[in-house]
Amino acid sequence: MTHEHEHHSDHDHDHEHEHGPIDYVEAIEGFRADKDHYFRHGEGSPIPPGERASFEGLPYFAVDPALRFEDLTLEPYAGDEPQQFQIPTSDGRLRPAHRAGSLHFELGGEPRSLAAYVMDDPSGHVHEHAGAEEELPTLFVPFLDATSGHETYGAGRYLDLEPEDDGTYSLDFNLAYHPSCVYDIRFSCPLTPAENRLPDRIEAGERLAEDHAEVG
Hints:
The chain is mostly beta strands and 216 residues long.
């Protein structure tokens, strides 16, 4: 069993030319090309080894800059679920997590909110911060939307959010990715809590191939 949520950082890169930064769309497309290369050749690729030679790349929605929301503040959790909980996984297990807060944004003129989670240490160890200022967490934001189960995986897609230097977060649906269990059932992937279902079609980020049959 391999836990989801650990191999994706292996292929994260900042995209800059020697002569200066490139534009947003080009940066996203460059990231996608790097990820395809990693999935085809990387040691930790979720693509089964026997399928990598024929892997032609991940299918995506077109990049949509309007689905990037910047300068979001992590607000106190807005739902009514307990802060500490066990998140179920694709292989029937439970993993400890906690609700770190909620992220609020506007989509199509309507207010929207997603709960943000932090996956906790299964041993129960709590990290203590020695400094006076507590370090802001990396947030795990899985979500469901109106494409789920059709154009995208039925159990949702993921976003990993790093805090910006000013303490805010950027929620960029163009970076939404499928859990690794889409490609191989040996991965144990957290399932998206029902509270993070959006009524909208999020046509950004990874999608399923038209002939895709879900693993499982």
